[in-house]
Every structure is written in C-alpha cells, then in structure tokens.
Design brief:
Keywords: Membrane, Transmembrane, Transmembrane helix. The protein is mainly alpha-helical. The protein has helices at residues 7-13, 18-21, 29-32, 37-66, 71-83, 87-98, 102-123, 127-154, 161-190, 195-215, 231-235, 241-255, 260-271, 281-303, 305-323, 329-354, 363-392, 394-418.
Amino acid sequence: MYLSETRRTDAQANPGADDAAAPPPGRTATTRVLAGNVVALGMVSLLTDVSSEMVTAILPLYLFYQLSLNPAQFGLLDGLYTGATAVLRLVGGHVADRFRSRKLVAGAGYGLSAVVKLGYLAAGRSVPLIGLMIGLDRTGKGLRTAPRDAMISLSAPPEAQGRAFGLHRAMDTAGALMGPLVAFGVVAAVGSAYDAVFVVSFCVALLGVLVLVLFVREPGGPARERPKVSLRDTVTLLRDRPYRRVLVAMVPLSIATVSDSFLYLVVQRGAGLDAGWLPLLPVAVSAAYLLAAVPFGRLADRVGRSTVVIGGYAALLACYALLLLPQGPVVLVAVLVLRGLSYAATDGVVSALAGPLLPEERRATGLAVVQTGQALGAMAASWAFGVLWTAQGSRAAVTVMAAGLCLALAVAVPLLRKARA
C-alpha cells in the first residue's frame, strides 16, 4: 500500500468511499505511515547512507593523515562538502514542484551521487580533483533532499508528520551506522587501499537507486492534475510569517554547528586515539540517532515540533561543553551520544515542522529554502572552525562555536515557539 495521499484527500476525491477506505480495527492513520512510500524512501536512504558514510568515514583519515592537509585546508573542503552546492537545493526543490516530478528529480540526485563514487578513483591524490568530486557528490544531495522530504511529507497525514520523518530518519541512520563499519572492514581487509572503499560504496549506492525506481511512487496523483508552480509563486512563500520564522531561526543555528568531521577529529585527538579508529567514531553517533529518531518523532507530534528542535540544539550545546573537558572514555562516549540525540531531535523534525506550513504544490521548494539556509550556514561553520583551529587551536575553536550557539539559541527560541506546528 502506498501513502500517496492523506485520508482527507482521498475523501475529497471520492466522498462515498469513507467507509470502504477506512482502516481495519486497530489500524489508524498513525500506523499507515509505516507502510508504502515512507518505508520505500527509508530503504533508499538506508542504502545511500551506507554508501555515503563509507566515504565520509575515511575522508578525514585520508585527507588529514595521508595528504597532510592542515585544519584550514580541511575546513575548506569540509565546507564544500556540506554547503558549496547549497543553491542546488533550491533548484531541485523548484524543478520538482515546477514540473511536478519529485521522484524524477530525487532519482537524478541519487544517481549522480552514486556515479561520483567512481570519480574518487580517478581523482587519486589530487586535492583539487577530490574537491571536485566532493562538490559533485553534494550536488546530488542538494538535488534530492527537498523532493525526497516533500514526498515523505505528502505521503503521511498531517498529525503524523513527526512519526513519518522519525521512521525515515531511523532507517537513514541505520545506513549511516552501517557505512563506517563497512568502511572499517574494507580498510582492515585491504589496508590503506581506499579504492576498494569507493568501489563498494558505488555498488551500494546503485542498489539504492534501483529501489527508488522500482518501489517509490510519486505522491499527489497524476502530474497533469496538479497546478504548475512559477518562480513568482515561490517568492510568496516568504510572506508566510510562521514559515519565515522557521527559516530565520535555522540559519544562525546552522552557522554555530561544528561539522561531524571536525567533531570526530577533536574527539580523536583529545582522547589520544589511534587514527585508525577514526572511522568508527560515527557509529556511536548513528546508534544514538537510530534509537532516538522514532521516539523523538512521536514526541514532536505530541508536545510540539519546535520544542523538540530547541531541545536538540540544547543537547548540541552540552556536547560542546563536554569537548572542553579532559577527554576520558566516559566523556568521549557522552559527546558522541549527545551529538546523535541532537540529530534525532532536529534533522527530520525541522522538515516535519516546516512541511505542514507549506502548500502541497510548493512543499519541495519551501523545504529546499530552509535546507539551503542550513547548508550555507554549515559551510560557513566549517570554514570558520578550520581557520580558528589553525590560528588558535581546537579548544579555542570549540569555545567560540559554543558561544555562537548560545547567541543563536537566544535568537531562535522565540521564533520557533511562535512557529509551532
């Protein structure tokens, strides 16, 4: 069964079908989000994240230790990885809405990211070519993210948005948890021959594209039945005050967020871990995210999505505070767990918060605008953190980011509370 439309839309299309379409006893609209498009898209993301996190797990090790990049150079590439192609999120969202083909645009993004994994083989030890591949990989992510989240939002009833995104992010994070383990296993088996990691990563990503093609359906009915969207219509989204509050709140929060790659390097160096263990640090983050994604999604539907988002950034602030303490085993685990809990409370919940504020025909575009703001903020954060680390050391860089997050929360909390959904 596919969740192409909510029960309300079905009832409008066929007023006499309420009884026939009603779920059997014990099966509610909440349980319906656990089937169809949400699960199919979750499986696509699971496979894609296995592929992506295999590469993400080894990139700090490869760039920092084998190619001997300094923190400022690493921050430049990491910023490119997270935000340089952020504008393509807007392109992906608008094209998906304009031509009413969210699945096609998402598929193009997934396909590009898959092919790029082979591009890393051609890049070799060339830092500019590696930067190009990183940019193309993020281009694929930029194209697919908003159309994918729009399909999830449109495939679940409004009252279960948090649970739908929680389920998707849990499956996505299961892939993120497996990716570093697979990469660690491949590196352990073949040594520092990273080419093998890229080849395995490509194969897994290709499988994710096949799942998308075969099992995901375009929500909202046939394209010809839905109104076309113009660029002028898109600009009018910013006139909606609740939506605008979410957008304005998320940008400063993203600017004050240390990227995962830098977080793992700070933890690894502070705890005195051997560099070979670096690919395993994301596993603890992913495990905490996986366990909390669905419960936090349910909590967001119950107590308010803005409240859960605020709590997620409070957890991130606690993570920064722990980074400033001596890095024993307990502190190390606490830092990684808090980062995972922060993801669980913010990643999908932000989309669940913003999605219902947007009309169906412009949902991909509206989500893309929020995600672009977040991506540009993350890019600026990576560049700033790399420069601060190079100039003053990692401890000073973390201190500055913690202070920045306090200021960002002071701006964001009142805005998000007024944008409750």
